[in-house]
Input
Amino acid sequence: MNTELGTNISKAAALLTADELVAIPTETVYGLAGNALSEIAVSKIYAAKNRPSFNPLILHVSGIKQLSKYALVDSVSALLAKEFMPGPLTLLLPKKNIVPDITTAGSNKVALRVPQHPLCLELLHSIDFPLAAPSANISGYISPTTAAHVAAGLHGKIPYILNGGTAAVGLESTICEVMHQKIIIHRTGGISANELQRVSALELVLVNNQKSVETAGQLKSHYAPNTPLYRGDIADIIARNSGKKIACISFQKRYDGVENFVLSPSGNLAEAANLLFATLRLVDAGNFDLICTELFPNEGIGPAINDRLGRAQFLYK
Ligand code: TXA
Ligand code: MG
Output
């Protein structure tokens, strides 16, 4: 299949209406989109990404009015939606029957978000169905923040990539769910815990939905470069690996004896988040023996950066 890259919304809409897949830009990362109400389109998403069929997909809609078409929206979720949508927040809600089981991998809950990207919103307004869209990478690899990243993984597998430039946030949406008068954060992301707390006084509970990654004996990394990545005290990692070709991904500081990739010399976490995935891809293509990195400050989007780097770590079998 020939993969075309362009900015033609009506072409993208026509393909999606015909149950074909289109990679779409969002403010977080690029998504691999198909008609969320079509079992044919959704099964093509799982196949193109090599994604296990038990891993459910997020529905992307054009505005908060659309949420109640596909899910039951409680009052706190409605408040969060009003405040943060469009934007990098995904709400997990009880699903309505109109959403096929294959889209939610059999779950009776559905994840919904309104992306904040002009091309993507224009596309969503031009069609009359929601878009199921996981990140547009081959399952397990680093999420794409440019159209070129999408093409690197999915060229030949999808007909069209809608080119919306570089993703503004660069990390995936925060996924949360209001349950028993608490806000459960299933994945840290573009909206910080502080921002959520500003809108709702409910207790925030962070759940680690990737426990398997930490389980001894399992090699189940996500967002992972092929080059081994170690996180810790950078000077220490460098000292223990003398003679090796090392790429160092740090927040602010440069180190001797390595190739430095400083994500934000001025100490801006949003800037670091924005560069993280592109830097991981760049470094992974650079023939390094290993990547070393560190813990980022645990504020704002910092926890989301730390979460993604944690999952990118090299794990022994
Ligand atoms: O920023 C984002 O959220 C990007 C852009 C493209 O919108 N999308 C994205 O999708 O990151 P994906 O599929 O790569 O990650 C979505 C996560 C998965 O871990 C999935 O398990 C979880 O959301 N998820 C989706 N639907 C769910 C559901 N019904 N119940 C529980 N978890 C769900
Ligand atoms: Mg993903």
Remarks:
- The two ends are 37 Å apart (CA to CA).
- The CA atoms of residues 87 and 133 lie 15 Å apart.
- Residues 229-312 form a domain with the Rossmann fold fold (CATH 3.40.50.11030).
